[in-house]
Design brief:
The structure is a single chain. With about 325 residues, the chain is α/β, with parallel strands linked by helices. The chain contains 17 helices and eight strands. The longest helix is centred in the middle third of the chain and has 19 residues. The chain binds 6-chloro-9H-purine and zinc ion. The site of 6-chloro-9H-purine has 11 residues, from helix 4.
Length: about 325
Amino acid sequence: MVAEQFLKELPKCEHHLHLEGTLEPDLLFPLAKRNNVKLPDTFPQSVEELNKKYTQFKDLQDFLDYYYIGTNVLITEQDFFDLAWAYFTKVSKQGLVHAEVFYDPQSHTCRGISIETVTKGFKRACERAEREYGITSKLIICLLRHLEPKDCLTTIEEAKPFIQDGTISGMGLDSAERPFPPNLFIECYDKAAKLNANLKLTAHAGEEGPAQFVTDALDLLNVTRIDHGINSAQDDELLKRLAQEQILLTVCPLSNVKLQVVKSVSELPLQKFLDNNVPFSINSDDPSYFGGYILDNYLQVAKEFPQWDYNVWIKIAKNAINGSWCADKRKDEL
Ligand code: ES4
Ligand code: ZN
């Protein structure tokens, strides 16, 4: 296995991180108190109890139930700033150089908190992270696929000023995958693309869902990146296409284990992706819930793919830089 110090210093890009998924129990409870938010009686009532729950989830839905309750403690612009700032501070010590981060506007607008409040708080943290840590970043909104597509259209309308002025760089699709396939969101993606031709598009696909959902996201939603995408490995034609079009898969190893998508990181088809020239990056998804940030994910992969030498890791790092949505000038610096 390559040295830990090498992986720490390797310039890393994060492409799959839900800012709400960085909410650590030790911030969740103080925020609940600060904002007078009552957590459900069935929710763990202490940091210790909550950490215990986070050691294993039954599946994606089991996790999402906790994740959406946690989100309820975020109310003010300062809360959103504090959340993202805590994240950037942690990863500034892990060799992160560029972060393209998700948030779920609908989990806040449904509680009467405006997209403006959320976006301004996050944006302020991004700007400070660039100034103080040299970490560049992009904001990506995600549509919640368990909600009605017509509600998602409203969200896109509310986000319009930020999509048009470039504050929001991309749009994705998350939440429960299997019951809510990509074809439901064709109109949403069309609408968003029309608001700004530079808006980047991605979608969670092939995490719990089949390879067909990855193909559908590419064909029907015109995405240029796939979040997770690990089930693509079951379709050789799709692998060829991903390689041909250099579609980046944003793989989340610790997440896949915690949500029991795979039994261990070693089961992930990463060698197959490399052999087929399918680009992927290594990411942390919801680090507070899944037991590790970007470097922890890199280290776990290195442990379970000990045959990979420095050249393989350099290739992975380069693929991540190339698949980023930053300007070419920034890519050269990275
Ligand atoms: C998510 Cl792991 C995962 N999958 C789908 N949606 C999500 N939202 C936050 N984490
Ligand atoms: Zn995700």
